[in-house]
């Protein structure tokens, strides 16, 4: 048995540890392993990772995972279906038999019903609703009953769809989320705080009981990353690209380049820029992802060429489980690389670029000098 987890761990807190403990228990009962695929520098909601992937992966292994693989940038900063598709592809390549995930509702029996409804809706009907100004999450709620206020449940459905459409034999194991809602931002007495609350209150000692001592120590010695630092770089990039250049950026469509450019001329801050561009149709998350694609100069051609890669970096591994890397590589479905060098670097051009931009902004680390974290 091999258990898969898709994560961001931004940062890894008590709620995440509970999920890993559930996975660990299931794996140990069946002499198996826990494999995690994790976003590295930026997240699915278009946010900056609070610290780099190596630090968060190290904490994941300390918490019970056997290995953590980096989800490439193009999978990390993507709408839900692409995020899920790439994550499941990687985990399937490692040979997982089960996928464990946190969700607001642990009854996932409705997924097949939702999927069946989706197959019956034609593209024109969907486009008609888009033209009314509704965003994708709202349309999915209207057409299929996929609740837009349960983000983890919606993402779990994307996992289900990715597994079903590729004919994979992977069993889904839902774990009911406890504690604060995903978007809560204030410290409360809940059993688990949201990652958003922890990031928003990173210097408050009250959050420390929700983090391991090692995670707290790592956070205290690192430069804490946030979107505030992006604004001057983004403004320069948008103005230098111009509307024609922005149009070539991945996920920019239907004249969005005009809205982005005009908003940049008057925006006073990063959050102000997002607010000026976002509409009922284009959610804040969508705009945040697009802005990251602009910052990293990720084009539509980059997506076509690089999304399908089957080469992935290992960020951390438990010492007595390092043989898993060789086993997976012998299987041949995906190739895992414990470190970057002159021989494999061309396979990771996009992620090297993203890592250096993140480093320029926040930690001044050289990705070529970062080695796989081996945890006893």
Automatic annotation (TrEMBL):
Family: Belongs to the TmcAL family.
Keywords annotated in UniProt: ATP-binding, Cytoplasm, Ligase, Nucleotide-binding, RNA-binding, tRNA processing, tRNA-binding
GO cellular component terms, A-Z: cytoplasm
Residues holding ATP: 6-19, 102, 152, 177
Source species, domain of life: Bacteria
Biological function: Catalyzes the formation of N(4)-acetylcytidine (ac(4)C) at the wobble position of elongator tRNA(Met), using acetate and ATP as substrates. First activates an acetate ion to form acetyladenylate (Ac-AMP) and then transfers the acetyl group to tRNA to form ac(4)C34.
Enzyme class at the top of the EC tree: ligase
Reactions catalysed according to its record: cytidine(34) in elongator tRNA(Met) + acetate + ATP = N(4)-acetylcytidine(34) in elongator tRNA(Met) + AMP + diphosphate
One GO MF term attached to the UniProt entry: tRNA binding
Record-linked SUPFAM superfamilies: Nucleotidylyl transferase
Keyword Cytoplasm carried by entry: yes
Organism: Gemella haemolysans ATCC 10379
Protein name: tRNA(Met) cytidine acetate ligase
Compartmental location: Cytoplasm
Database matches in InterPro entries: Rossmann-like_a/b/a_fold (IPR014729), tRNA(Met)_cyd_acetate_ligase (IPR008513)
Enzyme Commission no: 6.3.4.-
One GO term of the biological process aspect: tRNA modification
Claim: Transferase is one of the keywords in the record: no
């Amino acid at each position: 048995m091999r258990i898969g987890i898709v994560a961001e761990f931004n940062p890894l807190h008590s709620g995440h540890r509970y999920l890993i403990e559930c996975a660990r228990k299931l794996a140990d009962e069946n002499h198996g392993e826990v494999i995690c695929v994790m976003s590295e520098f930026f997240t699915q909601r278009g946010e900056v990772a609070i610290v780099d992937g190596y630090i968060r992966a190290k904490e994941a292994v300390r918490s019970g995972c056997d290995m953590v693989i980096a989800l490439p940038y193009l999978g990390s900063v993507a709408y839900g279906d692409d995020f899920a598709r790439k994550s499941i592809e990687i985990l399937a390549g490692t040979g997982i038999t089960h996928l464990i995930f946190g969700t607001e509702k642990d009854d996932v029996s409705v997924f097949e019903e939702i999927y069946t409804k989706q197959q019956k809706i034609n593209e024109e009907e969907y486009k008609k609703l888009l033209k009314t100004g509704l965003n994708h999450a709202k349309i999915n709620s209207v057409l299929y009953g996929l609740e837009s206020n349960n983000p983890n449940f919606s993402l779990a459905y994307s996992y289900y769809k990715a597994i079903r459409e590729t004919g994979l034999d992977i069993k889904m194991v839902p774990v009911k989320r406890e504690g604060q809602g995903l978007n809560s931002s204030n410290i409360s007495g809940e059993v688990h705080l949201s990652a958003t609350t922890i990031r928003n209150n990173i210097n408050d000692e009250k959050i420390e009981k929700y983090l391991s001592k090692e995670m707290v120590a790592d956070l205290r010695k690192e430069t804490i990353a946030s979107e505030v630092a992006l604004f001057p770089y983004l403004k320069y990039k948008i103005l230098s690209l111009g509307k024609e250049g922005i149009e070539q950026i991945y996920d920019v469509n239907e004249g969005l380049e005009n809205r982005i450019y005009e908003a940049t001329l008057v925006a006073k801050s990063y959050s102000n820029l997002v607010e000026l561009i976002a509409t009922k149709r284009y959610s804040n998350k969508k705009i945040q992802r697009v802005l990251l694609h602009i910052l990293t100069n990720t084009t539509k051609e980059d997506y076509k060429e690089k999304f399908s890669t089957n080469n992935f970096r290992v960020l951390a591994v438990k010492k007595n489980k390092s043989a898993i890397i060789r086993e997976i590589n012998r299987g041949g479905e995906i190739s895992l690389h414990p470190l970057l060098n002159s021989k494999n670097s061309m396979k990771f051009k996009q992620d090297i670029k993203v890592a250096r931009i993140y480093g320029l902004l926040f930690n001044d680390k050289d990705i070529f000098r970062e080695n796989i974290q081996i945890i006893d």
